[in-house]
Design brief:
The structure is a homodimer of 409-residue chains. Chain A has twelve helices and 15 strands. Chain A has 409 residues and is α/β, with parallel strands linked by helices. In chain A, the strands form four sheets. A seven-stranded mixed β-sheet of chain A has the order 2-8-7-6-5-3-4, with helices on both faces. In chain A, strands 11-12-15-14 form a four-stranded antiparallel β-sheet. In chain A, strands 1-13 form a two-stranded parallel sheet. In chain A, strand 3 (126-130), helix 5 and strand 4 form a beta-alpha-beta unit. Chain A is globular. Chain A starts with 15 loop residues before the first helix and ends with a helix. At the A-B interface, helix 2, helix 4, helix 5, helix 8 and helix 9 of A face helix 1, helix 2, helix 4, helix 5 and helix 8 of B.
């Protein structure tokens, strides 16, 4: 008799975004004339950069000719031309020495942050911020690394680290021991960033406790403050304790194209139960070559084009457009008397709901009165209660209209 | 202390294809003037169909314009336009009623056949053919569903079903009970196909034992015999016991583009340990929406183009080119006195090594004397010893030359 993975059955009903979709559709059906504006799901709205489009056309043409056709990406870890561009532009340009052999190209940071837990034993204690991107938690539930559901959105055996206005949404390392630590800076959903000093404490904690940091830097392109690190490897010693995740989704509008990469330093090791050190770089490579077959050649050419002089300029232009949205959202909401966080080094604005309204309550208010869709903060964890997340990825005209509508409620 | 997933350490050294790559590179370095011809790794050589190229150019242009830009593929299970084309052309056209909601688009049959085991408990007993596509076994090792390595390429707790010349490379259902059965027809590596009667026995076995069949039909487009089923769902009752995997890789040359799909029937259930039936369709959907973010819009448009009248004709033309290669390989080798199997309803030829030579021995001989790269049969399991696999995916000129060289050894 085939038995089911019962860990899946521990997942709490309704992944956040389907629930938002349901409420959105119900409202739209009841009010067919309302024009909803989405500031909820973190999807981009601006087209791909012209340099990327041109590169993709060229790659498509290559695939139509026998002599330039590309089949399997040998090994499934990414073409050298892309990994070299990443190494040079994302790391060496910032004084960080990350080698091509430490870079693994994939179809998304969601896939990578979801799959990375497979390299570790089921006995590891996981620490996550609260609120948190749900994928980190859910994938550990599915693997059986947690107990049953505790409070809404939380599970037994996971260590939740509240990220609140009091700590500037950057939790300190815990007093006790944990083994795997998910950190996301610039943060989804709060828009907070961590300073060098704050990250240094985490790297030290990991070193002392032989813990590993899983560092999600998918939003690093949105950092405007020159003192904020873009990579955890800007912290000394991080190559001994951290894996980093990057994505072209939010950097270059690749949500519908699918390209990302993970950095697994060659020095990074975890232990067997009897204390033997095991290198994680070949383990991740083995996972990819067994369970994955690489990213489309066309997509990898497109990603590489974001590093050309033209591509960089165009990609930067779109990021500035989104960050101008963020600025307008912050300023307008502040003027209306709302308390807002984030939106300076991140494309997310974390809005405190007024007068103690609950997240879903305020979500429903914004939906029904302003026809604006947001993301309820509590959907990211209990400490997100009393907040909603707004994204800056909208079209500027829609952002302006959304704020004009919010003004009237 | 972060601990490693020790199941990974049970994997036997060297995934097959990297090992082949290593020997190939070593030979090439020692003989820089030798022009190697690959008949080893199952990668295609012919360019994408013109209809696919045209569709991709159009999709790339859409991504460059705000009004037609596509971000996330909502839910990550595939666009309806592609799933409808699949339902109609791959199933309804063969009298099989598979609904759009039962089709899940992915980036490859390797990913799907690797990931599907996650839906099942660790206590399930796995059955595979021997020889077998290594991914089925390795992913179960990594999950901890096996014991340690036994003989080369095998693991304790897995039930291996020898596929030999004696049973026409189609094993019978086992006498004892197993829970998850991987079947691959047309078969990689032997090129064997299963008749309706043979598949019927498997469906009956699964029904009687509440087992689930994981049916890899990635090569169905190569079936030339009108009586051989293309889908397991052509067998009555299969929707209650089977998941099917399909791919555009070998059908339409998408090895470097990445698109495939899995079919998880709504009627299909597995049980909790205490006997409660759980539907697998929503579980697979939950996996995808948590760990995956869909396939590139451009790639899905490309896949849909293979179902246009033009696309179908062009794709068929390439398959016929490969199958003509297969015919030439079969005929030439037979004429040279070799014993060969497969290559009639599959792009693989399973060649018995002469005079009791071992697989790797004959691999090395073909590499050094004919400069032809093959795949050692033993790499697919102990029952593959004494065979090498040849693929028909080469360019016709290379195939002809390879055979001329083999003639001289």
């Amino acid at each position: 008799m085939a038995t089911v993975n019962e860990n899946y059955l521990r997942l709490q009903a309704g992944y956040l975004f389907p629930e938002i979709g349901k409420r959105k559709r119900a409202f739209q059906q009841a009010h067919p004339d309302a024009r909803l504006i989405s500031m909820g799901i973190g999807d981009v709205t601006q087209p791909l950069a012209p340099a990327v489009i041109a590169a993709m056309h060229k790659a498509v043409d290559e695939m139509g000719v026998k002599e330039t056709f590309h089949g399997y990406d040998d090994g499934g870890v990414g073409y050298t031309f892309l990994r070299e561009a990443i190494s040079k532009n994302d790391f060496k340009a910032r004084g960080v020495d990350i080698d091509v052999g430490e870079i693994f190209v994939s179809d998304g940071a969601k896939s990578d942050t979801a799959n990375i837990q497979e390299l570790f034993g089921l006995d590891n204690i996981i620490a996550v911020a609260d609120p948190v991107y749900p994928v980190y938690v859910d994938t550990n539930v599915m693997a059986g690394r947690t107990g049953p559901a505790a409070r809404q959105g939380t599970y037994q055996k996971i260590v939740y680290m509240p990220a609140t206005a009091d700590n500037g949404f950057v939790p300190e390392p815990p007093a006790g021991k944990v083994d795997l630590i998910y950190l996301c800076f610039p943060n989804n959903p709060t828009g907070a960033v961590a300073t060098k000093e704050q990250l240094k404490k985490w790297v030290e904690y990991a070193g002392e406790n032989k813990a590993i940091i899983l560092f999600d830097a998918a939003y690093e392109a949105y950092i405007s403050d020159g003192k904020i690190p873009h990579s955890i490897y800007e912290i000394e010693g991080a190559k001994d304790v951290a894996i980093e995740f990057r994505s072209f989704s939010k950097t270059a509008g690749f949500t519908g194209v699918r390209c990302a990469f993970a950095v697994v330093p060659k020095r990074l090791r975890a232990n067997t139960k009897d204390g033997k050190a095991v290198e994680l770089n070949p383990l991740w490579s083995r996972r990819l070559c067994t369970k994955f077959n690489g990213v489309s050649y066309i997509t990898q050419v497109a990603a590489a084009a974001t590093y050309s002089a033209e591509g960089k300029k165009q990609v930067r232009g779109t990021i500035e457009l989104y960050m101008n949205n963020a600025k307008i959202i912050r300023q307008s909401l502040t003027k209306l008397g709302y308390k807002v966080y984030g939106g300076v080094n991140a494309p997310y604005i974390w809005l405190k709901t007024p007068e103690g309204a609950g997240s879903w309550e305020f979500f429903d208010l914004l939906l029904s009165k302003a026809n604006v869709v947001t993301t309820p903060g509590v959907g990211f964890g209990p400490a997100g209660e009393g907040y909603v997340r707004l994204t800056a990825f909208g079209d500027p005209a829609n952002v302006t209209e959304a704020l004009a509508r919010i003004k009237t409620i």
